[in-house]
Amino acid sequence: MTVSNARNIRLQRAYDDPTPDDGHRVLVDRVWPRGRTKEQLRLDAWARDLGPSTQLRKWFGHDPARWAEFQARYRAELADPDLDGTRNPVRLAPG
Hints:
By secondary structure, this protein is mainly alpha-helical. The chain has helices spanning 38-41, 54-60, 67-78; strands at residues 26-27, 45-46.
């Protein structure tokens, strides 16, 4: 699947309850959300490889001062040529 328009993508926390108008639900994280079952999440797919690497997540540590650098490093990870069309069905808009 190729997303032609980034405005078609909505972000939602895994801990928020699904709603009927959510559409296609994809978990983008390398780690399964603690305390959540498959039934609770109602996922259509789990794109583990699109989540930030463990190394990057640990470096970031939810420190707001590192947010801009985290974004740059995460975009660099997503640009990795090993994330080809079969592993990376989502095309991110620049910016």
